[in-house]
Design a protein that fits this description.
The protein has 179 residues and is an alpha+beta fold. The protein has 4 helices and 12 strands. The longest helix is centred in the first third of the chain and has 21 residues.
Amino acid sequence: MGAKPIYIPHYTYDDYRKWEGRWELIQGVPVAMSPLPTPQHQTVGGNLHMIFKQALKDRCGHCKAFPPIDWKISEDTVVQPDFLVVCNKISKAYLDFPPVLVAEILSPSTAIKDRNAKFSIYEAQKVKYYLILNPISKKLEVYMLVNDTYQLVVVTPESWNFEIHDGCSITVSFSELWD
């Protein structure tokens, strides 16, 4: 006698849109975005947004800094990076193409997902820069896509020059990131 097949639900973007609360959907598997971020996490996220918004405004006006928004990668994968830089117009209720830069702010409940599943997703989607921030250790890791693979290029820089888009580059000072 054969074993009874195991049913594993597989969800899509249409299912995701109906859920209450904060969720991500990774290869059809729902991932709760809770508990809510800590004040320290929110402060770092706000500072990161402010730093990039000002740098982009001065040098790359067509690029925009965003706090978490839905990035629909496929029908069964929707993520919400803590921070994004997008250089093309978003014409839908969600982002449907890779941003230039994403950042994740680590927390005990998300660190494994951010360093593994999301790292692989962003790399496969060819996001040029991936920043991983640890507000507890005040450590910033800057990864850059080189030959379709992320390379760690700098850890906790005072400032860094990002070649954002079509000859547009910005130098970002991180001196106020952790304040």
